[in-house]
Amino acid sequence: xxxxxxxxxxxxxxxxxxxxxxxxxxxxxxxxxxxxxxxxxxxxxxxxxxxxxxxxxxxxxxxxxxxxxxxxxxxxxxxxxxxxxxxxxxxxxxxxxxxxxxxxx
Length: 105
Fold this sequence. Notes:
Dimeric_a/b-barrel, four-stranded antiparallel beta sheet, 4 helices, Dabb, alpha+beta, 34% helix, HS1/DABB1-like
């Protein structure tokens, strides 16, 4: 099938220790072999009207949908979700296969 992506965009609740939460996410992802790559960022440019309160984006890639499904049920992911989910005010999750149009240089 090719690369499969798990894309998460969130707005954290006020008062959440975001840096600590992201460090925990990085540690969790690093320990799960199903994850091919992981990257994240915080929005610094978009107008509030366009961003609708969302502040952080997380992208994980997998070697197919089956690997993503295995990640979703991995005990470390399930455990971390119990910490991550209560810290979120709003979330959008998209899971999709990639269609590469232009490869990195």
